[in-house]
Amino acid sequence: MIIKTYEQAKNVFENSKKRKITNNTYLAKIVCDEAGKQKNVYVIKLHDTDIIQFWPNKTVLNSGNYRTSTTKERLNTFTPFTINQVKGIWYITDYISTVIFQNGIYFKNGKFHNFAKSNKSSLELRKKIKQYVKDYIAEFFAGKMLYPGPGDCFYCQFDFTNQKTGKIENPNTEHIISHIKEKYYVPSLLVKAIKDFPVSIAAQSVIAHFWSSGQDCEFFYDIAKRQLESSLKRYCYRMTGTAS
């Protein structure tokens, strides 16, 4: 099944009863208003995220803050563009020009619009996340982090995940950035991270040991440290819209 343009999306939608085009990926039609005129827009949805909108005169792209290998693969498969990841930054090309991807980027009249002007801020944020996670885990293994409780950050306790789709809906990403700036190590943040990016039973047992006794743990330290750092880093990347 080839869908890379408005006409191809329209043809598949109007002439096929099959709406599922691959795993967790669906083709839909919505009616949108542009300049006071209603237009049929064909949409490719990955889970509940409209990752591609085929308008009659433009193609709009969106990762939904899930800059995963799956999202990238779908965008590459169902558009005539190519997205590559370099040092966690997405670049998109139409084989003539290459720009920095951001949500809402669109291709119209032979060129990209609404793309990111620089990757400097993204690279700086990723660097800060790495340092924050390193310091966070050090704080945890120093026994300085209390068990999660009602005194934690509200947003770190709140579950933004749609239980049916597994998708994070309307996350407040600024609070993650504020924790990084303030060096605020919130226990509930680790709980959220390992829920979305699970760790082994060994690592979980280390967490339970520290939060129940506050004492050093001689077993599985290296395993737990590596896995907790990875889980928390991936969670912060996703919540701030950077590629994991």
What key attributes describe this structure?
244 residues; alpha+beta; seven-stranded antiparallel beta sheet; 8 helices; 10 strands; elongated
Descriptive notes:
The protein has 244 residues and is of the alpha+beta class. The chain has 2 domains: 108 residues, no CATH class; 120 residues, no CATH class. The chain is built from 8 helices and 10 strands. Strand 7 and strand 8 form a beta hairpin. The protein is elongated and about 65 Å long.
Gist?
The protein is an alpha+beta fold and 244 residues long. It has eight helices and ten strands. It is elongated, with a radius of gyration of 21 Å.
In this structure, how is the largest beta sheet organized? 7 strands, antiparallel
Number of strands: 10
Kindly state the mean pLDDT as a whole number?
87
The portion of residues forming beta strands comes to: 15-25%
What gap, in angstroms, lies between the N and C termini? Answer: 29 Å
Number of domains: 2
Explain the layout of strands and helices.
Layout: H1 6-15, E1 20-22, E2 25-34, E3 37-46, E4 49-54, E5 59-61, H2 69-77, E6 82-86, E7 89-93, E8 98-100, E9 106-108, E10 111-113, H3 120-141, H4 154-157, H5 174-182, H6 187-196, H7 201-213, H8 221-239
Antiparallel strand pairs: 1-2, 2-3, 3-4, 4-5, 5-9, 6-7, 7-8, 9-10
Helix pairs in contact: 3-8, 6-8, 7-8
